[in-house]
Amino acid sequence: MATKTSPAARAGRSNAPNYRCAECGWTTAKWVGRCGECQAWGTVEETGQVAARTTAATAVTTPARRIADVDATLSGFQPTRIDELDRVLGGGLVPGAVILLAGEPGVGKSTLLLDVAARVARLGKDVLYVTGEESAAQVKLRADRIDAVADSLYLSADTDLGQALGQVEKIDPALLIVDSVQTLSSAAVDGSAGGVTQVREVAASLIGAAKARGMTTLLVGHVTKDGSIAGPRLLEHLVDVVCQFEGERHSRLRLLRAVKNRYGPTDEVGCFDLTDGGIEGLADPSGLFVSRTKDPVSGTCITVTLEGRRPLLAEVQALLAESSTSQPRRATSGLDSSRVAMLLAVLQSRASVSLHKDDSYVATVGGVRLTEPATDLAVALAIASAKTDHPLPARLIAFGEVGLAGEVRPVPGINRRILEAERLGFTHAIVPASPGGTGPVPTGFSVREVSTLAEALALLF
């Protein structure tokens, strides 16, 4: 028989102590050493009863308008005069937009945003640069080095959110840059700077100010060791644009990708060259990934990869040497090692290329990393060229995905890749056979379609 709970018992249960995480606000009925949401240790504290809160309706200060009466021209794109950045953003900066730029330490985030700040300030607009990681003198040294000094560019070295918002009230900038959002903290909430609660409060306050003033805001975000943006996932939902700045530490090339963009596409990629004098956009970066040799060399093949919607030429190099051990070495650089191992097995099993006694070294030129499956055919042809010591034609490109059965599968953007290769002076291409064909081919450009890897090897060797 079911028992009824008395009102006194229910009242006693409601007055039971409650525990709350000081970092993210997660609550639980009993104490635990580790937060169940943010996984922080030692942040769960007793807070007592948490009463349910409701918000009553208030008087409307700004009445709602019909969507047809809203002036959309107030949110038009304003170019930054950095073509590669404008390409990724969809046309430029939008008034009131909040953009989050994340990337590894030292990749060039601060250098790029300082250049943007100077270019916007030279258009006669006030720009506020809030730095929480460096002093104003350190930022000034970088600005002198990259020629980013402008009269209407203001610097503020603050880590307090209230002080930063006070500077916004005083200057009323058209562009606000915060470097970085994890260094600001608010005295109104608990937790240390960079914690979940603080990042949520800082982001909400800055976004509210940006929307109310029509002020474009650029936020620098830290990343974790696995490459994801540090802080709560809510941060990426709140902002309008999320950009990822990528680049190898030993390479000058930097790639800017839009992960989220409410104002434009997310398949565009911006290319930048990071030098001692600053960071510059690269309208044609293909020359960085192709070696310059007078005579053809065996073991090399040029391919065309798509970064977003942008075709880029890259060179794959392979070297084979007789192994002195029972287990040949398989070394790669700039390519997926497991995919290269698969292509070695396909070459040996499906194309009768004996590789089981050779050490193989496969790499890309210029430090570029190729992850697209369309580079499989070029990697396989470079390995076969190194094995036979037979150079491929000088003006040849190859692309296509290779399957375990030795078939060459179609890839997207075949015509776009061919047009890019023709623009850079190439005259021949080996491409996968596609049911829809390759599309219009430039005059004087030879295209050979292959359906298997063995057919491609027979065509060349």
Please state the average pLDDT score. Answer: 88
Strand content: 15-25%
Going across the major beta sheet, what is the strand order?
6-5-7-8-4-9-10-11-12
Supply Rg.
28 Å
First-last Cα distance:
87 Å
CATH architectural designation of the largest domain: 3-Layer(aba) Sandwich
CATH fold topology of the largest domain: Rossmann fold
Task: Describe this entry's structure for a reader.
By secondary structure, the protein is of the alpha/beta class. It has three domains: 17-49; 76-283, P-loop containing nucleotide triphosphate hydrolases (Rossmann fold, 3-Layer(aba) Sandwich); 290-460, Ribosomal Protein S5, domain 2. It is built from eleven helices and 21 strands. It has helices at residues 7-14, 83-89, 109-121, 136-145, 161-171, 196-213, 234-238, 337-350, 376-388, 414-423, 453-460; strands at residues 19-21, 27-28, 44-46, 98-103, 127-131, 153-156, 175-179, 216-221, 241-246, 253-261, 269-275, 278-281, 300-307, 310-322, 330-333, 358-364, 396-398, 401-402, 408-409, 428-432, 446-450. Helix 4 (136-145) links the parallel strand 5 (127-131) and strand 6. Helix 8 (337-350) packs across helix 9 (376-388). The termini are far apart. The relative contact order is 0.09. Mean pLDDT is 88; it is low at 7-14.
